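G., the chain you wanted modeled:
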Amino acid sequence: MKKWFGLALALLVSLSACADRAASSSSEPLSEPPAVSSGPSEPEPVSVSEPASESVPADGQAVTAAVTKKIFTFDQFKKSYQVAYPEFSEVKNADGLNAALKAAGMKDADQNGYQAEYDERTKKPMAVSLKTDYEITRQNSSFVSVLFVTNCSRNDEVSSGRTTRTVNFCLKTGKSLSTGDILKENDEFAVILWKEIQKDAPPEVLDSLSWDALRQLLPATPVYMTPDGIGFTIEVSHAAGDYYEVVVPLQKIERFVRIDFFS
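Predicted structure as tokens:
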């Protein structure tokens, strides 16, 4: 009897010890689960006064040039500007080229100014929104050609709409090329250009542009080079898109070209 009583007492002590260990274990604080990320945080806003650089791949026609996209922003006095222009390195006469590109890219922003303008009637500041971007239309060891397009809107609608500028630069001479340096524009040339316009232009462009208007506009029309032709951005009405862009194949106007196009 004593033997069975001793065994029962030992079993009771053992069970009590296990219960104490379990209680001790359950009373220990649990570690917090790891924080779950809700995704990448938003980038902090950056105020840009000097152009900010963004590297972009060079055009397919590039030989050795490296191209950086420069961004200029201005946001004061109810004026909001964003201007992009390219900057080249590792090319001959890069300083002259880059100066010409920056001047062309910034021209519309410079013309709209960096001070407040006031409506004469309401005496309140006028809102101006402007964005300039570009396309490198030709780039090889001899020439760089860039087309700039600016979208501008103003409260007074003065200069609102889309405008274009071009830079055609000869890397060998270090000089910008005018339209007259590139082409001999005469009536015979204008006839060819007019036929190219009529071939593909939508009705609203043809309604906005006549032969006589083309002849008057042509001397001031921005031109640019492509790998195998010459491009034109011809002014039309705002309803027709502000300008019409057409590229004339080189073989159709080769006799009017004044530069060594494939040098």
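The chain is about 30% helix and 30% strand.

Shout if anything looks off.
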